[in-house]
Amino acid sequence: MKVILVILHTLLSLTLALPIDNDRIVYPDYKIIEEIVDRFGDYERDPKSLFDDPNLLKSENATAAYLIDDEADTKYEYGTFYQGDMILKDDQMDIINSLRPVNDQAEFNDDSDLGTRTGILWAGYRWPKNSKGTVIVPYVIDSHDFNTFDELKILFAMLDIEKYTCIQFVPRSSERNYVHIHSGVGCNSHLGRQGGRQLISLQRKGCMSRGTIIHELIHALGYDHMQNHNDRDKYVYILWDNIVETQKNNFQKVSPYLFSNFGTQYDFYSVMHYEPYAFSKNGKPTVVPKDSKFNKIIGQRNALSSGDAERINNMYKCYS
């Protein structure tokens, strides 16, 4: 017990020492260690062994996984899928392609909220609530691909989302619809609930920072990228001449008839925002905030932003 208290005290001290210079990033507090120990300590309820030895001091593993975060390498998010890292079903792609693309000059002359849309509107692609109003997302973590330390990183990312939303990730038992997290090629996810098993790829090299894991989990919940916001030209410049020619489609604004920001504003702090050099062909920026104070903020992969949490809660009507 004394060792546990020392570890928790050290964790608290380090957490308080984090260089928080704004109130937009939601940094998890040290009590999350207690949550992970309590939640996954019952091996009968959760048959997946998170530790090689059940008698091992679990809090030491949890503390290490919490404190030692991989450096995000967002190039692994910039793949060949929709907007780089989102896998769409055929019907999703057909509907998106059937609508007039929204380019960087086009605007909607509508007084509604059509200018604030980037989260999927189709209710059929959302995860269901239980009788208590909690959104349940069953998951499987491929134990052949990840070690104990990796699994803990994934679980911490899940708990970060759970802490500020009505989402709960639960180990799959026999549910038909679930996410299967594996180490594939790059970092990518399906957009929203697909039905049956749907993959989230977290390549062990490059995709294991907490923010990157949160990013891909949020795609699975149904939200895409902030800079594709239909109103983005008020906030960022898209430098088209610096973008790889075949990747310019990844910067198209999304159709306001398919996606929504659910009443929230453009969020430079979002874990769902591209970093400044996304898909650059020449090492020069492709996305530049009009307000230069956000130049080093966009593309952060440290934690959920308060805006990210608000959008999830609004999308799933968590408190209604």
Architecture overview:
It is built from seven helices and ten strands. With 320 residues, it is α/β, with parallel strands linked by helices. The chain has a single domain, classed as Collagenase (Catalytic Domain) (3-Layer(aba) Sandwich), CATH 3.40.390. The chain has a six-stranded mixed β-sheet with strand order 1-6-7-5-3-4, covered by helices on one side. The protein has a two-stranded antiparallel sheet with strand order 2-9. A two-stranded antiparallel ribbon has the order 8-10. Helix 3 (58-67) crosses helix 5 (148-164) and helix 5 crosses helix 6.
Poorly predicted tracts of residues = 1-23, 40-61, 98-119
Per CATH, the class reads Alpha Beta
Order of helices and strands: HHHEHEEHEEEEHEEEH
Strand order of the largest sheet: 1-6-7-5-3-4
Question: Characteristics of this structure?
Answer:
alpha/beta; EC 3.4.24.-; globular; Collagenase (Catalytic Domain); two-stranded antiparallel ribbon; 320 residues; 10 strands; 6-stranded mixed β-sheet; signal; disordered N terminus
